Amino acid sequence: MTAICYPTPDELHACLTHPARVIETAQGPVEYAERGQGPPLLCVHGGPGGYDQGLGLGEFFQVNGFKIIAPSRPGYLGTPLTSGRTPEEQADALAALLDALNIRKIPVLGASAGGPPSYLLAARYPDKVSSLLEIDSVCLSYQPDVSPLEEKLYLSKAGIWLLRFFLDHFPEATVKSFLRTESTLDRHDIAQRAKHILKDKTRFEFLRFLIATMSERLSERQAGVDNDLTQLAAITQLPIASIACPTLIIHGTADKDVPPRHAEYAKATITGSELYWVEGGSHVGFWVADGAPAAQEYALSWLREKMKM
């Protein structure tokens, strides 16, 4: 049996400075980065984010033998918004990137706001997606359920800087605050989860990494954030019934940001799809919940098995 590896804090933070390049595609310029050796896996980031976040979301798979290809979605970092505003246009941009890289077919991972373009890539270009893994992904109308204070904290330069400051100096209180925003867990469960995260360097460093991809170079991500909020609110139900590739939907049962009904809709709509619940998982439960190792190992096994088909 092949041993399972987990990314170290240094490996996660290396994703922040990993080199990227911009390639001209049929849909316009697209920035992307590649990391690792082995079969390629396309990782589509959430928001705020960019190619750096895509690398980190896929780092577990990278240390277990995959080469991660992580694009910046339009409006983020080096990919201009003109390369695709709507989820459909962003799916077309992903397909054009694969063409420009001479990749015929590839497994795809989408997360959060990266759900719509990755779902639609599989629906619109069935010959390009060999398997689809969606983690806490949007597929219905999405509007952030946050207070005005939380919006200023998570969607402003000053707020994100303050969040990072408190994470460095008051980590337990900051992790609890993050979990209150991203989960429906009660106070007792949040306190327990925070203690578990703080005791696990990989999980705690993943949160530090994630916040960095939301805060560093924020001005270069803002157009993507603003566009995401407009486009995701306009979705009613993504047209994903035509997806025919093997599909695994992973979602936290306590996800407050993208509620479980998104996963339930995808499971009911995509014939033959599989739904894996991360019990008590927040919006980032796949990476930081108590059940994260089991969920990650299941996803890795599933991807490897589908590659044999």
In short:
By secondary structure, the chain is of the alpha/beta class. It has helices at residues 9-17, 51-57, 59-62, 87-100, 115-124, 148-154, 157-169, 171-182, 187-199, 201-215, 222-234, 261-269, 285-288, 292-307, and strands at residues 21-25, 28-35, 40-44, 67-71, 106-111, 129-135, 247-252, 274-278.
Describe the fold and architecture.
This protein is α/β, with parallel strands linked by helices and about 300 residues long. It contains 14 helices and 8 strands. It has helices spanning about 10-15, 50-55, 60, 85-100, 115-125, 150-155, 155-170, 170-180, 185-200, 200-215, 220-235, 260-270, 285-290, 290-305; strands at about 20-25, 30-35, 40-45, 65-70, 105-110, 130-135, 245-250, 275-280. The mean pLDDT is about 95.
